[in-house]
Batch of 2 targets.
Target 1
Amino acid sequence: MENIKLNNSNLSKISERVLVPNYDRNDIKTGIVHVGIGGFHRAHQALYTDLLLQNNNNKDWGICGVALLDFDTKIYNTLKEQDGLYTLIVKELDGTHTKQVIGSIVDYLFAPEDPTKVIEKMAHSDVKIITLTITEGGYNYNEVTKDFNFENPLIEHDLNNPQSPKTIYGYLTQALKLRKERGLKGCTIQSCDNIQENGHMIKNMLLSYVKQAQPNLVNWIKKNVSFPNAMVDRITPSTTQDDIDNLKKSSGINDAWPVVCEPFKQWVIEDNFIQGRPAWENVGAQFVTDVVPYEKMKLSLLNAGHSVLGILGALIGYKTIDQAVNNKNISTFLHLYMNVEVTPTLGNLEGLDLDLYKKTLLERFGNPNIKDQIERICSESSSKIPIFILPTVKTNLKSNGSVNLAAFVIAAWAIYSLGKNEKGETLIIKDANKLLLDVKANIASKKPAAFLELDTVFGNLKNSDIFKEAYLKAYNNITNNGVEKCLEEINSNSLSHI
Ligand code: CS2
């Protein structure tokens, strides 16, 4: 089979092999600017938008993808080479692959190369929505002060260099300022990150920044910009060289960066779009008045579940999430964690079938074709744990619920942060706070409580005697007996109690 390079001019040849956009991509306006064109965006929002374009030729809602960081050079260059096209490969439960070329990213910009272009694009009157996947850590929220982190040197840079910003806050402020000055309408800013009340988070953080940078803009933003909350979901592992090679072998498509994902997808959005929106509900998204219960359920079960599997699995020496979930001790522990510590904190989830959700989750985690990397799941844990696990702990402490299982995971994370698994192999830890984690983990190896002094993660949790005691007990237990033995003991004690 002849190998065909993925780009616009080869689309008709490629259409003989896989599904390609059936719409004229030159004819689409960019109504959405999306910041952070990683795998997740391309498996989720860009797909929903592509489906819409395929279905009804809704020409106002193409996406302009913005690569914000120097680190994003590779994805920007790839999209440029391929005219914004990429292959989405869904790894089905039966082991087959469903492939489709996605065309909804019709424009792409690299912020470090030309910040003005990005600001102008965000301020363009065609653009009605700015969406974000900037990662949990990208919101610049300080867990201790519960406020915007003005100590971040990049924020200081943006305050001093408004025309050539580096952070999302500098870009949004400048673009909104232009909109106001030019008498244009505002827009919607929609977070697509895994954060409880992510719309409120971006709104509060942005307003804190604007109060400092452009105080006159605050009221205009309050009146003219909306910030819907949303719950996003689709497991999207990192693309591997094997994925690239398999696509070439099976379909003869030369795509430098295809995206692989699971079949499941969900998007629940608060219907709060000040300048209109695509009819994403026609292609499976749900619009609701209150997203909070959906977010709570997803963050504290799926994302926390991932962290539990990832951290425990990494210490034992597993590389993928399905390996971890196939270990009976780990999956029983996860089951207990979900039922004993998370479920009682979820309150009334009217209309949601929690038992079915948990059952489906375990099936999704166990999908042997996905091979989601434990390294991906454990990356940036210092930003994920405060969002995925600690809210559950805090609620349980208030209501006298159990925190022992969560404390066990935190203790395992402290030991994981020493950088070796129980087989003595080196763990690759990717975390913006890696240096600090390293220091605290090493002090903790002699005085375990020191790890809880990571204030940006734990806030004042170190002052809870109940949590601290459970954590210390777990830390010593894991150090002396290893993860598996501890899990066996916890599982048999807890199961006999429920
Ligand atoms: C994962 C998420 O990053 C993580 O730790 O839990 O990327 C997860 O796969 C997605 O949120 C699924 O929707």
Target 2
Amino acid sequence: MNVSVVILAAGLGKRMKSRTPKVLHEALGKPMLHHVIDAVKSLNPAKIIVVVGNGADEVENRFRAEPVSFVLQKKLLGTGDAVVTARKHLKNGSVLILNGDGPLITTKTLKGLLTKHRRDKNTMSFLSFKDDGLSGYGRVFRDERGKVSRIVEDKHVKDAERAKFQELNGGVYLIESDALQNMDAIEKNSKSGEYYLTDIVGILSQSTGKLNAYECPPEDILGVNSRQDLFHVATIMRKRILSNWMNKGVTFIDPNTTIVHTSVSIGRDTVIYPNTHLEGATSIGGNCTIYPGSRINNSSIGDGVVIKDNSLIEDSKVRDRAIIGPMAHLRPHSVIGRDARIGNFVEIKKSTIGDGTKASHLSYLGDARIGADVNIGAGTITCNYDGTHKFQTNIQPGVFIGSDSQLVAPVTVGKGAYVAAGSTVTRNVPANALAISRSGQKNLKDWVKKRKLLKKG
Ligand code: UD1
Ligand code: CA
């Protein structure tokens, strides 16, 4: 598409009261600016320019992997100055200008604006919305015939005008590159000392430029200036995502306490209980049940998996029909096999657990390769760390590890072998052998009775 994009992201964000640049504040695990970049990326623009200033290095570093280029606005002299800074880097054609602090903008709404802009052969078009309860937005002034005449910033609007003009500026503009030369006519606002991008509207309406504002749902263009706004916007984003998944056949028992990031996918007939957080690049299969209180980050969960209450799963893979939790912790690079069972208070790190294998209670399994149909008894620990290095534990298929055993790595337990409960295994166990390492038991006959007699005497 013959569109270049300018995203304004240099502002200080004073009202956020933060050391972090405003556009890096996150809504659903992703910086506001990232949401805006994602929305424009789908338009396949010729170029995306981000105007940075406050915290420029931090912002640039965060988006190195994105197809955007950065332009530095040295002094933050307002949105008008920001666009002038970007102007010489633009290609001919239509220029889409957006505020970096409006993360709810959607590709669909942007496409709608482009279509109307072209249909009406405008020089400039922008998005507006109506909402009585909001302050801080520029107001769109129209003449008696309804033609847009200018935008006046909230703080400069008089009370009588406030009642008359209730259309607000959404901060999303399309303007033909030829018209950008008119930016030079914008004057410094005498009260704030800033150059307002919005003044271009008044300038163009005086000349031959054809311009118009198009209303869109307020939900698409809410801007974030404060932490309250951020919360409000994140709430809307969360509801949008949940209703999208509900439309695709996912049940949420309590959408108010469920958080699903934009990058997550969920299969049909999965049921998600309250207080579930699905984060990052996570995919959940169909027919899963996720009980209350779990957080799953950057992980892939197969079909028919059950995740019981209060489990944490990070950078891991859980295959079909496995049962995890309650209170299990899968740390990065864990793979849990089909029909496997990881029970309460079990911590897995960088380990592969075979199909049908069970570790049902109180275990630490780290740097382990565990085959299929293994039984890991309660309290089993892989001693994988000697204080300097990490070592592997290898447990082959069909092994039975008795409760309260320690496997001191590096060590291999061969196929079908048994480890007796309470053993400390320091050497490899051959296939089908029994490893037992504990002191023999002595029973002292009538010891209790004798002790009582001793006490009396
Ligand atoms: C702006 C609009 C207002 C509109 C609202 C919508 C102007 C003058 N006003 O107001 O009409 O209703 O957005 O959300 O444009 N920025 C820079 N350089 C600067 C100043 C700002 O890049 O020198 C960036 C900010 O980082 C921000 C965006 O421009 O992403 C908007 O700036 P902000 O100060 O938030 O403008 P608003 O007062 O919200
Ligand atoms: Ca703003």
